[in-house]
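Deliverable D4.2, example record:
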Amino acid sequence: MNRPLSVPLNLMKIDPTPKPAEQFVHRLVNDAETMARNEPAKAMAVALGLGLVLHVLPTRFLVASVTAVTLTVLRPALLTLGVVKAFELCTPPVKPQILLP
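Output generated by the structure prediction step:
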């Protein structure tokens, strides 16, 4: 008897309880849907406004700012990790001592 290819039962288990972030997103989507159904003109105005703001934003400035902040934080972090690694390589390994009472 040939069995059809299927997903094992243990992989099909899905946790039914949503996480807080999922609940937040679902609530936002539901609120947006109810607002769009109840007040379509206001929803269109909000969508148009957000679209204009996103279109006008200087994306090069935003990308440059994020890159500058990332590199500013990244340099000291890499230097610190390098110093720690050099210290580990230069010091002999220490065997843990067992203290008996």
